[in-house]
Write a structure and sequence with these properties.
Largest sheet: 7 strands, mixed
Low-confidence stretches: none
Number of domains: 2
Distance between the termini: 10 Å
Structural class: alpha+beta
Radius of gyration: 21 Å
Length: 381
């Protein structure tokens, strides 16, 4: 077997780590190329000791992990209780990486630690980062120019409430800042799936006046006026009520040259507010003149339907799931949702992951930091 996974909900860290390490060893044997370890806050203080035990028992070539608000296993999401999730795979060549950043402006940063050369052509970069010290947006801008075809899949660690509070793991070393990860080589096929969990409302509209993340006009009319018309007359009352009760989102079409497009072609971003004086709408992403946008809503039914549709026509022998800490029971009103959908689609394949404070994944072949999404790496030989 090329992949393995284990999940333990035992409250004693040593016992839980022994359970998951034993399960992985039984399934895959010693010396897998890559292992990923995720632990809930109950075990976060023992992450370094746990890593030592995993390395001693399983002997992975590279070990990456973090502490997180909740962890994911095969068909199971451990929220609010102790949990340890371990994943291992014979993926072919792996190169570990540690990244640090230094801010040089509001939207710019210098990223250090990126390897000058790679001994192989990586299929993907699996990355775990600290949300308080690692600027994902400038990093992805750098990749867009230098490595445009490299998918980055992973997420922000979610156990810390401030700088220094998170725990990132690479092999035997625990860090509190930056990012750690692994370049996974050509020995495995990796498909990236990003489920943003929204559905469109109203028609697509062209941005006809904007500045940075402020949209002043849509299709020649004040953006706030277009939105008000939509809320008052253009959508069903239940959608208008949903927007007022939760939040409004907007989709940005990433390829303006497509004659027809689907929901997968949109990057979903939050609408932060409006300015009645100038009729503008403010979003949390820069936008360019001429971009096609479409207002969006998110609810449990939409998120469930989109994830099932995205997974429905794919194949996988193993999965890594990085889901937003705002999903889970909070969104779906039931436990284990995203893990269950993966198991429904592919059966009980080796699966692990964690609830993230921001998810990494490509949309239309471009990497982004997402919110309220599920970013999934599907692996097969």
């Amino acid at each position: 077997m090329s992949f393995a996974a284990g999940l333990s909900e035992h409250p004693l860290t040593a016992h839980a780590v022994a359970e998951v390490a034993g399960a992985a060893l039984e399934q895959i044997g010693p010396g897998p190329d890559l292992a990923l370890l995720f632990m809930t806050p109950h075990h976060a203080g023992a992450l370094e000791d746990a890593a030592g035990a995993i390395r001693a028992i399983l002997s992975p070539g590279t070990l990456v992990g973090c502490a997180a608000a909740a962890v994911i296993g095969i068909g199971r999401e451990v929220e609010g209780g102790p949990g340890v999730a371990l994943w291992a795979g014979n993926t072919g060549p792996v190169t570990p990486v540690t990244l640090e950043s230094q801010s040089i402006g509001d939207d710019e940063a210098v990223i250090t630690g990126w390897p000058e050369s790679m001994p192989f052509d990586p299929a993907a970069l699996l990355l775990v980062a600290d949300p308080f010290s690692f600027p994902a947006a400038p990093f992805f801008e750098y990749l867009r120019d230098s490595y445009p075809d490299l998918p980055v899949i992973g997420g922000m660690a979610s156990v810390g409430r401030g700088p220094g509070g998170n725990r990132l793991l690479l092999d035997g070393s625990v860090r509190t800042s930056g990012a750690v990860g692994a370049f996974v080589g050509p020995g495995v096929t990796i498909d990236a799936v990003v489920s943003q969990g929204c559905r469109p409302i109203g028609p697509p509209l062209a941005v006809t006046r904007c500045e940075r993340n402020v949209i002043y006009e849509l299709a020649g009319a004040p953006a706030l006026e277009r939105l008000t018309e939509l809320l008052n007359r253009g959508i069903p009352p239940e959608d208008a009520q949903l927007i007022r009760a939760t939040a409004l989102h907007i989709g940005l079409l990433l390829d303006e040259h497509k004659a027809t497009f689907s929901q997968e072609d949109f990057l979903i971003r939050a609408v932060l507010g409006g300015n009645a004086e100038v009729g503008a709408v403010v979003i949390d992403e820069g936008v360019e003149l001429g971009t096609i946008v479409q207002f969006q809503v998110r609810d449990d039914a939409s998120a469930d339907a989109e994830l099932r549709e995205l997974l429905g026509e794919r194949t996988a022998q193993a999965a890594l799931v990085f889901t937003c800490n705002g999903r889970g029971f909070q969104l779906f009103g039931e436990p284990d949702h995203d893990a269950t959908v993966v198991a429904d689609a592919f059966g009980p394949i080796p699966t692990a992951g964690f609830f993230a404070a921001g998810e990494f994944g490509p949309v239309h072949r471009r990497n982004f930091l997402h919110s309220s999404s599920a970013s999934i790496a599907l692996l097969r030989e």
